[in-house]
Write a structure and sequence with these properties.
The protein is mainly alpha-helical. It is 74% helix and 0% strand. The protein has 15 helices and no strands. About 2% of the residues have low confidence.
């Protein structure tokens, strides 16, 4: 009996101490800009957790495999071989595009980053349903971890691309390399914006994770990866399509990122006699600024929808 009395007394004392503590609000609070910056602060305070989630994503992907991280190179290298042989030689695309292998791999590398970011981020909340339902965290951490794991694979492919460009002589050390940095930033901005919105919508409408697979496939062929952007301009003229639609095509973020990587690693794309569109740097800058606005809007959509994540999952 004395032990039970002691337990009751300890419980009452603990409850009294908890009742005396000030309430601490969790989750996204405030409207528009206030809520947006609160979310950024919450994520920054848990940056170590974000790092651990990224490491978990990378390790889980290659767990128990013999080749390990090397599998991250198999798919893009296989794609390169197929496109280089089928499109480059069998269909003759290599005759009109010099150093066709580097041209293709430059586009595939940055496209691979974009496609993986979108696919991983879209399913990130559902994939981490156990954590979402059991403990409070800034839910944006889960999509952000997807960006980190995609970035690891991208780094491996970038090493191969750089080596290939050095061997073939298409690597030019100069200001053109800034196009590659701008392309990566552009993909990260738009990947974050689209991925945040889709990850939240996917909780309520699971079809999104399947729809994004179709969108990613269309992105591949709607970008000048296996063909030159000039072919698109010629086709528009041939079929009488308004010229402003060509500008829309050139100014979409995926096309700009692919062109930026080609300008950086594919020598004919930079310097004298460059065959890139005019004002490529300005186009990328404007697209980046628009993308930042979209990131803000996407985070606000995410914050609005995250309240019922646990119930939906």
């Amino acid at each position: 009996m004395e032990e039970l009395d002691d337990i009751r007394a300890a419980t009452l004392a603990r409850n009294a101490r908890l009742a005396a503590l000030p309430l601490q609000q969790t989750g996204t609070r405030g409207a528009l800009f206030v809520g947006f910056f609160h979310s950024i602060r919450d994520i920054w305070q848990r940056r170590e957790l974000l790092r651990l989630l990224i490491a978990r994503e990378v390790k889980a992907r290659y767990k128990d495999s013999v080749l390990g991280f090397a599998w991250g190179l198999v798919r893009p290298l296989t794609q390169l071989l197929i496109y280089y042989l089928v499109l480059g030689h069998f269909l003759g695309a290599a005759r009109s595009i010099p150093e066709f292998a580097v041209y293709i791999f430059a586009g595939l590398t940055i496209y691979g980053l974009a496609s993986e970011i979108l696919q991983v981020m879209t399913g990130s909340i559902v994939a981490n349903a156990g954590l979402v339902k059991k403990v409070y965290l800034p839910r944006e951490i889960f999509p952000l971890a997807g960006i980190g794991s995609a970035g690891f694979n991208f780094a491996l492919q970038l090493l191969i691309l750089t080596a290939a460009a050095l061997v073939t002589g298409t690597f030019v050390l100069g200001w053109n390399l800034l196009f590659a940095l701008a392309a990566v930033v552009l993909i990260l901005i738009y990947g974050l914006a689209i991925g945040l919105a889709l990850s939240a919508i996917n909780v309520y409408l699971r079809d999104m994770q399947y729809l994004i697979e179709v969108i990613v496939m269309l992105m591949m062929w709607a970008s000048p990866i296996v063909y030159s952007w000039q072919f698109v301009g010629d086709a528009f003229v041939e079929f009488g399509i308004p010229s402003w639609l060509l500008e829309v095509y050139l100014d979409n973020p995926m096309t700009l990122a692919v062109l930026g990587f080609q300008a950086a690693f594919w020598a004919p794309g930079a310097g004298e006699g460059a065959i890139m569109p005019e004002h490529l740097a300005l186009r990328m800058l404007i697209a980046g600024l628009i993308g930042l606005v979209l990131v803000f809007l996407a985070q606000r959509i995410f914050a609005r929808l995250q309240g019922n994540f646990a119930q939906e999952l």
